[in-house]
């Protein structure tokens, strides 16, 4: 099988939003697709390890913020490379709540959807959520939607291993701790996306001690 054939498949990029009690949570996905027109349903594939997955299962509700090309890489880093289990991703983001209670981004987006899960299927690593779209709203100022290809080629973005489209053979970079030799794999996300206070999990050295491996 030539897995590179899959590289030519096209996708958009989105932030899924959900609620963890009273706290908004969410993650970046590229797998939202419209499945039917009457009623309007969408599908999305969310990794079993993503905190957003747990929260969607509890409430049966999620939102989709359709990202535009202008979205800063910091937003992708916040929503796509760290977990809402231990961070408040919506803190510092311009966002608002939509009825019946899901958070959406309010800038650098083309529009939003409010979705109610009608079915789900457990796949090997991901849950496929099938959801009815209860509400859809377009941004007042039209912006170009961010495609997966634009994210990879123009914004030089990378994809963590929880994304269904992650390609193991494309892992290009790793970093070695200059103090203890611990290897940080880029599959976990680029080192520069980790919080400033990140330390080597083995010896506790600061991020500066990591050196790019060859
Ligand atoms: C470009 C990109 C695409 C992604 N696509 C998906 C996806 O379709 N499904 C998924 O489960 N995770 C996807 N991810 C990974 C999640 O956003 C990431 O694992 C996130 O940290 C999960 O956060 P959470 O634990 O707060 O839910 C993607 C990440 C990026 C950067």
Helix content: 10-25%
CATH C-level class of the largest domain is Mainly Beta
Mean pLDDT: 92
Percent of residues in beta strands: 35-45%
CATH homologous superfamily classification of the largest domain: Electron Transport, Fmn-binding Protein, Chain A
Heterogens:
flavin mononucleotide
Query: Which strand order spans the largest sheet, edge to edge or round the barrel?
Result: 2-1-5-8-9-4-3
Number of DSSP strands?
A: 12
Give the helix/strand class: mainly beta
> What is the domain tally?
2
Distance between the termini: 28 Å
Q: Summarize the helix and strand pattern as letters.
A: EEEEHEHEEEEHEEE
Rounded Rg:
18 Å
State the CATH topology of the largest domain.
Answer: Pnp Oxidase, Chain A
Helix count equals: 3
